[in-house]
Structure formats: C-alpha cells, structure tokens
Design goal:
heterotrimer, A mainly alpha (277), B alpha+beta (452), C mainly alpha (309), B: 452 residues, alpha+beta, D-Maltodextrin-Binding Protein, domain 2, 2 domains, 5-stranded mixed sheet, 3-stranded antiparallel sheet, globular, C: 15 helices, 0% strand
C-alpha cells in the first residue's frame, strides 16, 4: 500500500512519530533513571547526573558471564529444536487434515488455557521423579513438546497459504516432503523468522521455568532481574532501583537488536516469496 | 533468502559451540547425590548474598571436599519451596522468617528440632548467645519454650532512624537516644514532619517495611495486649483496644504521616527516601545502615542520621520482628552435615564477620559483637543505642503468631479488607469483622488439616 | 471444499492415505510428550481439585467431592473478581485489536525509516514482563511519576494513579501499551498478500480504504482471530500484571479494582494453602475459556470459509 498525496504522507509521519515517542518513552525513562544517584529520589524525567557505576554494578553484582552462558545454552537448545517441531506441528494441523486433527488442535488450545501455576507442582514432581530437575533436559522436552502459542501461530499462518496451490503441486507428483521443502518452507520464510524470534523472546524472558527447576549455578540472566536475592548490595537486603533499571535495559537490548536485524530479513523474505511463488 | 539461511546457520553454530563450552564447564559442578562418588549435596534456600558473599559457601566447600552446596534461593511463601517439599526433594537448609513463619513451619512438620544435634556441637555455646535464640523455640503453642527449630542468621530489634535534617526543618527537638518516646509522641512528631504542597506529599512522617498486622501486634503488645486471643484460634480485632490500635495507624496513613497506597512513597524501605529528605523517620532495624554501608555511601549520609529507640506504650520492650533464620528440613538425609553447615553460616567467624564488618545486623553470638563497625561517631551512636537500650529491653517471646494460618494469608487479608477503609469504601468495623471471620475460617481449616 | 467432498466418499484416495500417515508421523512426538508432560499434571490437578490438599498433607489427603466447586460460587470474592476480569477483557481486547490493525497497516507501508518505527512499536511486547511492571510502576508514582508531572504541567492536582480510584485505568493503559505483541504477525500476513492482488483491486477503482476493507482485513482475519483467542486466554489468566503494577510482591495482593480472578486463585493456593479450592477455581475458568474459544472459533471458521470461497 502506498499513500499518494503529500498531505497524507506528512500526516503519516507526524502521527507515527508521536505514537513512537509514547511507545519508546518508558525505555527512555528507565534509561534516565538508571543513571541517577544510587539512593536518589524521585525518579526524574531529565537526566540528573550520569552515574555509570550503576551500569557497572549491573554487570558486577552478579556472576554475569556465567548467567549469560546459561541463557545461551537454553537458547541453543530451544530455538533450533523448537523451529523444527513447531513448524512441523503447525503444518500437519493446517495442511494434513486427518481424523482427529481437530481434536488435537483443541488439545493445543487447551494447553494454552491452563494457567502455569495450576500444573506447577505436579510437573515439578514429575520432573523430579524422572531425575531431570537441574538439568538442561527440561528444555529439550519443552522444545519437543512444542509451544502451544507458536503451534497455533504456525497453523494460522500456513492456513493462509491457499490449499489450491498445494493440491496442484500434489497432482504434479510432489510427495509430502517435497511439498514441505519446496513449497511450505520457501513460502514461510517470514514465519520461520517470527518463530525463531518468538522462541528467543520466550526463553530469554522466561524466569519461571529456570526458577522452578534450576539451582543458582545454572540460572539464566533473566533470573537476576526476577529474583530479589540478586542485585542486592553485598551483605545487605537492598536492591537499588537505578541498578535494577540498568539491568532491565541490559536484558532488553539484545532483544531489541535482534528484532531490528530479524525484521530486515523478514522484509527480504516477504519480497522474495509471496503467493506468486 | 540464502543470506538469511546462512545467518541463521551461523547463529545456530555459534550457539551450539557456546553450549558445548559452557556445558562442559558447568557439568562438573552440578549433579545429584551419589553422582559424584560419595559426595553429599546440601541444598540451601538462603542466597549467597544473604550469607555475605558466595565466598562464604565456596570456603566451606574448600574445607569440606565431600560437600557440594547447591544454592536454591526462595523467597517468603513461594511456590518453589512447596513444590520441593511435595515432590519429596526438599532442601536441607531452609531459610525462614523467625517471627512470622516459624510457628506454622513447625506445626506443619517442616522443621527439624535441633536439640539432639546441638549436643554434639562444640561451637554452640548457649551462654554466649543472645536471647533472640528463644524466638526459634516453640512447643506447639507458645514461643520461647520447647525445642529449638532454627538459629537466626543475624538479628536486630526494631528501632527508629531519625532524619536530623527533617527534624531541624520542622523545628522539632531530636528525640532521646536512651529513652523511648510513647506512641502518642511518635504520632505527633510524624504528623509534624509531613510536608505537603497542595495534594502532593513532599515528605512523609515515617516509612516502615513492616506490614500492618506486625505493627499492630507491636503496638498492642507494648500496652500489654495482643491481636490474638489466648490460644491463637481467633483475633481480638473487634475489641476496643485493637480497634483503637488500627485507628492509630489509619489516622497516620490518612494524613501521609505514614506512607501507604493512599499517599505512597516511591521507596518502600526508606533508604532512598531518607537520603533525599523525603521521609522524617524510618522504623526498622540496625540493618538499615547496612544498605548505605554496602554501597559505600554511608559517609555521605551518616551526618543526617540518628538511631533512637522505637516508640513504646506502657511497657518498655524491644522486638525483633524481621528476623531471617536458618533451620533444617525435618526429613533431610544428612542432618549432621546440614547442621554443620548451618553452624558454619551463623556461628563461624569467617561467615559472621563477612556480614558484621559492613554493619548489617548483629551476630547471634555475643563474642562477635566487637566485629561490628565502631569507629566513627555514627558507628558509636548507633551501636551504643543498640547495646544500652535495645539489648536490655529485648524480649524474644513477647510476640507470636497463630501456628494454624500462614502469615502471608493474614497480611493479604489486611490488604484486601483494610485498605478499602482508607479510601472510604468500607468502614473499619466491617473490615475488622470480615478479617476476623476469615481468620477463624483459616484457623479451623488449619486445625483440621493438622489433625486437631 | 474439495476436502469436504472427499470426506463423504468412503474409500480413501492414495493421496489422503499418505496425508494421514504423514500427519500422525509428524504429530507423534507432540502426542507422546503431551501425555507425559501435559496430561499427567492436568489430571493430577483435576484430582486435587476434589480433595483438601494443602501442600503438606499428601499422605492424609481426603476426597471432598464437589465442595470446592460449590464453594467457588458461594465465594463473593471469586465471583466479583471474575466479573472484573471480564470487564478488563471487554475493554482491552477490542481496543488492542484496533491498535494492532491500524499499526500493522501503517507499518507495512514502504517508507523511509519504517524499520525503526516497527522496532519502536514492537518494543513494549518484547521487553521482559518483570521490567515492564517496574517501569510502569515508576511512571505512575504519585510523587515524581511522569503522569503526575504532566498533570501538574497543566495545573492539576496530582492523581493517585495506583490508588483505589484510578488503578483500574492505569492497568488498562499499561495493557494497551503492550498491545503491539501480535502486530508482527499481522505485518507478515499483509506482506504475504501479492502486490498483483492489490494492484488489480486498484485498477478496479478501489481506494486505500477499499483495499484495507476488501483485501487486507480478510487476508489478516486468521491472525486477528488468533489475537482474539489469545487475548481472551491471557485476560482470563491475567495475574502478574496487576501485582507488578501495584508494586506488591508475589506474596501480596493488589488493590480491589485490579484484583483479578487468577490472583484470587493464586492467593487461595499459595497464601491460604487451599490447593483443592484454588485448583477448582482454575478449572472453572478453564471451562469458561473453552466455551469462549469455541464460540470464537465458530466465528473464525466462518470467516476463513468466506475468504476461501
């Protein structure tokens, strides 16, 4: 879509910029308030001093490198496996209607509807009996089990590829794997990017699973923000707000950068693919 | 398109490599009982920050090569501890709040009595320990008698931190450091310290991290009363005395003399607020100074601070209401090893001094009192107040809580039914009646479950 | 359409048979793990909801029949909080749908700097939830918060945004700020619409509005349907946001106006240790969600049928 008139274009920029300012404001606000004096109040709108030592503390008050390493392990397990499984499940549910597929799709929806804390304790007991608490196996299982929301996303996305195209290909003699590799995947590059990004997001920001199953030794970075026993001043119970603000940004930055890079790919992908195939 | 695939391939490769590297490094230190040829894994729910530093744990492991400490920090009343217990995979050393969690934990059979273990110990010398130890004694109903279920990690009675600047501005003479003020005097001062500009509060009278039920009990007890009935099966909230106590705090919250959701202060603990002259007084323990000391900013603020006795009613008593204690899980497989570690954390010189050097709370053992900072005038003033007033008036058994309901449920009942009163959405009488009813239901359920 | 016709025939075509085989083959790991990893905890939870389990009495647990379920309907706190949760959903779901679609259309245009804009609009939904709550709590502060600074700028008296009277609106505002979460899906669905389709519509004389109404909205309908379903689910499950906004910890409760149903259920389980009752509460909301989702799905299926034909 394009806007033809100059006026519309100017309006577009004005409105977008205005909304953009609103949307980015909390981030700016957090940044400014990560730089204020450690025990100062109130929070400020304009910078009051630049106390970069808060940022330094965001890296030194916790074993930063170890936690980062743990985060990367979780991502390295979850993303590759998760892309394959979620895409496969989504494809099967969208394009291969078999008896029971509706039932299975309802199951996926059901899983989404169960509040996590309702199954927390039985799940803990199960993992503990399997002897996999405090191991990375939990993330392997999770990845294979698929993420309901992402399966749902994949199914919806693949549903919007016209079935007629696929059927034509089948008549041309393509088998199932050729259909996936020659049609579904090339037409869903943006989807793969989205799934990868979502999985990154999900596991980068997930504090509940690591908290429930891992000991401090194996905690990922997000736990530093969530668990109040971290980012406290040595030997005390105090968590200074500016340091926590800085930490929140440290955690947000990789996500923002990744999104920025990922969405460029996304654009390229959509230019190259499209319905014309 | 190819570019994208290539990028993703690279990313995956890099991630896998990192995984391999970190995985190898991390693999050696992890593992469960028996995995590491005869090594014993002790799971502790206290965090390394709380015991001083991760060095404290590391040192113990160096000295005891057969022990692996697994740190699983949990916070008060949360899901992880419950899950660990339910799965039969509980921690060995449990961190708990001495004042409000101990009775319930004992009643539910979570904590192991330490009496047998103490007998074999050389470093446990009761004569050398502060009375605060009695907070952890419980006989199923009363505090202070019966078995010992834990040892405070460190402790301090509740005192009052004075913002000298605010007092000077409001033209109020500084309170005595040896004699406590009464609750009425306290309320009066708190009201005078409030600074408002129209509807915006520039300075609150006082801030405390203690929840309302704890404050109520402290207030009532200093008049020789309690919010609990004889056998802790019901509250006295509907009585005239309790009602007056609630009104006392309600009046302060309504005028911003005390911070609440009605007139909130940006800082719940008071460290920043006091630094910025946004609060006149902070009701809290000796640990309060530790926050400044821990960040190296104590020297900037110590001239503004004065530590005085907490307000009292008719009885001069000091209370320790925010104690963090360590106990042993009743079904641990390694009680002796767990006890040895517990003793190391609370009584061993190295771990005690790691905390006391900064000036964060008092050690449980009297012999380490001289490791607390005592150099500057400020150090001397604060510690002298503790020694001269608080230690002589301290009573570990003065206050207790019902063993049949979790303290979290009590505080949330106040959040649910008392807070609307502040906004005029409910009357105090109704609120107290509802809270009392709910407490009675919870107590009944608790008794039933514990087979009474 | 072809599928439906095939179903009526008794004999399976070879293509269908291979489809079926592929389907079950692909779904096998899902089903296997579903049983072990999801079904077991679910059934356990269902069982617990009929007992007096309190977290510590595994050995002496007793069956109490429907008591927990009956109690839920007698508990005024539960029913009021359920109504409140519905109200939040009725406001936020349609509002975020509008925001999302407008944003998606605006951001799928080709303009200089649209990439940066897209990143900015998406930021709210990618920030770790813990961080978001902290930020908004800071912005809503009575003294020194951004909103009150603005109010003061226009000469008003400061408002207690997190107090009894306003916290509901503050929560809505925070939720709408994070509404951009599914905008990414909509953008990629719009991008997938062939340019030829739009061009031919334009040749037929359709303006921008026409293109949006007749091409973009129908083509993004599956994504919107998904956003509604996830919106319903996440609203009914809402639990962390009110707590974080109020700035109270996990072991406390937010003020009444934002005391949601799930907060109530969580309270019953982890503060009052009424596991049976708490789980009964979650099963009730589970059933409500199922019904709502089925209704939405009916509508959604009709819509996608319309597109297909």
């Amino acid at each position: 879509m394009e806007l033809k008139s100059k006026f519309a274009r100017v309006m577009y920029y004005v409105i977008c910029s205005f909304v953009a300012i609103i949307f980015i404001f909390p981030l700016y606000y957090t940044f400014i308030n990560s730089l204020r004096d450690i025990f100062s109040l109130p929070a400020t709108l304009l910078p009051k001093g630049f106390h970069w030592e808060n940022w330094e503390m965001a890296f030194t008050l916790i074993p930063f490198m170890r936690f980062l390493g743990n985060s990367l392990i979780i991502l390295a397990i979850s993303i590759p496996i998760g892309i394959v499984t979620n895409f496969t499940y989504g494809y099967a549910l969208a394009k291969l209607r078999a008896p029971g597929s509706d039932f299975i799709f309802s199951l996926v929806l059901c899983i989404m509807m169960i509040p996590t804390f309702a199954t927390q304790i039985p799940q803990y007991i199960l993992f503990s009996k399997l002897g996999i608490t405090n191991t990375w196996w939990i993330w392997v299982f999770e990845a294979i089990a698929g993420t309901p929301y992402i399966i749902f996303l994949c199914r919806q996305y693949l549903n919007s590829i016209p079935s007629a195209l696929m059927e034509a290909a089948t008549i041309d003699g393509c088998n199932q794997w050729q259909l996936i590799s020659k049609m579904a995947i090339p037409m869903s590059k943006p989807l793969v990017a989205i799934v990868a990004f979502r999985l990154f997001n999900l596991h980068w920001g997930d504090y509940m699973t690591p908290y429930m199953y891992l000991s401090r030794e194996k905690w990922p970075l997000i736990m530093a923000l969530f668990n109040t026993s971290l980012y406290v001043l040595p030997g005390t119970n105090t968590r200074p707000a500016p340091v926590v603000n800085a930490a929140a940004l440290v955690l947000a930055i990789p996500t923002i950068i990744l999104f920025f890079l990922c969405q460029k790919q996304l654009q390229q992908g959509s230019v190259a693919s499209g319905i014309k195939g | 398109m190819k570019k994208m695939m290539r990028t993703m391939l690279c990313l995956t490769l890099v991630l896998t490599m990192v995984m391999g590297l970190v995985g190898c490094g991390g693999g050696q230190s992890a593992g469960k009982d028996g995995d590491n040829d005869g090594k014993i894994t002790l799971t502790v729910t206290v965090s390394s920050a709380e015991v001083g530093s991760s060095e404290v744990f590391q040192r113990y492991m160096d000295e005891h090569p057969n022990i692996i400490i697994e740190e699983v920090p949990t916070s008060n009343g949360d899901t992880k501890l419950l899950s660990m217990i339910a799965s039969g995979n509980p921690p060995d050393i449990i961190r708990f709040a001495g004042y409000d969690e101990l009775p319930t934990f004992v009643q539910r059979g979570i904590l192991m009595p330490l009496d047998d273990l103490l007998g074999n110990s050389e470093s446990f010398n009761e004569d050398d320990m502060f009375d605060v130890l009695d907070t952890c004694r419980f006989d199923g109903k009363n505090r202070g008698t019966g078995s010992l279920y834990g040892i405070p990690k460190d402790w301090s009675p509740v005192g009052l931190w004075i913002n000298k600047e605010a007092f000077a501005e409001a033209g109020i003479p500084l309170p005595s450091t040896t004699e406590p003020m009464t609750w009425d005097e306290f309320a009066d001062i708190a009201q005078k310290l409030v600074k408002k500009d129209g509807e915006s509060v520039e300075r609150h009278g006082f801030i405390t991290a203690l929840p309302i039920p704890t404050l109520l009990e402290m207030y009532l007890n200093s008049y020789g009363k309690s919010m609990w009935n004889e056998d802790y099966s019901s509250t006295t909230l509907e009585s005239k005395d309790s009602m007056e106590a609630v009104k006392y705090f309600q009046a302060m919250q309504e005028t911003a003399a005390m911070s609440s959701t009605l007139y909130p202060n940006a800082d719940g603990i008071g460290t920043s607020a006091l630094n910025e002259n946004k609060v006149g007084m902070v009701l809290g323990g000796y640990w309060f100074r530790g926050s400044y000391a821990g960040s190296g900013t104590l020297s900037d603020i110590e001239d503004k601070l004065l530590y005085v006795p907490a307000p009292v009613g008719t009885e001069k008593t000091s209370y320790a209401l925010d104690l963090t204690c360590l106990g042993i899980f009743s079904q641990t497989e390694h009680p002796e090893e767990a006890y040895d570690l517990l003793e190391y954390l609370v009584l061993e010189e190295y771990s005690v001094t790691t905390r006391s050097n900064i000036g964060f709370n008092l050690p449980v053992s009297k012999k380490y009192m001289d490791t607390l900072p005592y150099e500057t005038d400020f150090d001397k003033q604060t510690l002298d107040m503790v020694k001269n007033y608080q230690l002589s008036t301290f009573d570990p058994t003065a206050v207790s809580v019902s063993p049949w309901i979790s303290y979290t449920s009590l505080t949330t009942l106040f959040d649910k039914f008392y807070l609307p009163v502040l906004y005029g959405r409910s009357t105090l009488e109704d609120a107290m009646k509802t809270i009392n009813q709910e407490v009675e239901i919870l107590v009944e359920e608790g008794k039933e479950l514990m087979g009474e | 359409m072809i599928m439906k016709a095939n179903k009526k025939r008794k004999k399976l075509s070879p293509m269908q048979r291979s489809n079926y085989r592929a389907f079950y083959f692909m779904m096998a790991p899902f089903l296997l793990l579903f049983i072990v990893y999801r079904l077991f905890p679910m059934i356990w939870g269902l069982y617990i909801s009929f007992t007096n389990y309190s977290g510590f009495n595994m050995g002496s647990m007793a069956n109490v029949g429907w008591k927990n379920y009956i109690r839920a309907f007698e508990d005024s706190q539960a029913m009021i909080s359920l109504g409140r949760t519905f109200l939040i959903g009725i406001i936020t779901i349609p509002a975020s749908m509008v925001i999302c679609n407008v944003m998606a259309i605006a951001l799928s245009m080709k303009f200089k700097g649209v990439g940066i804009l897209r990143t900015i609009f998406y930021i709210p939904s990618i920030l770790p939830a813990v961080a978001v709550g902290t930020m908004w709590n800071g912005m809503f502060l009575r003294d020194g918060g951004v909103f009150n600074e603005l109010v003061k700028l226009f000469g008003g008296e400061p408002i207690n945004w997190l107090g009894y009277d306003y916290i509901f609106y503050s929560l809505i505002l925070m939720l709408l700020w994070g509404a951009g979460g599914s905008v990414l899906n909509n953008i990629s669905a719009i991008k997938n619409i062939s340019t030829e389709l739009i061009e031919s519509a334009r040749l037929d004389g359709a303006g921008n509005w026409g293109v949006i109404r007749h091409i973009i909205l129908p083509m993004t309908a599956p994504m919107n349907y998904m956003a509604v379903v996830t919106g319903i689910i996440s609203t009914l499950q809402m639990f962390a946001q009110p707590l974080m906004l109020s700035g109270v910890g996990m072991s406390s409760v937010p003020l009444q106006p934002v005391y949601t149903y799930m907060v109530h259920a969580y309270q019953q389980i982890f503060a009052n240790l009424r596991f049976g009752y708490g789980l009964a509460l979650t099963w009730i909301v589970f059933i409500i969600m199922m019904v709502l989702t089925l209704i939405t799905r009916r509508i959604g299926d009709k819509m996608s049928d319309n597109i297909a034909t």
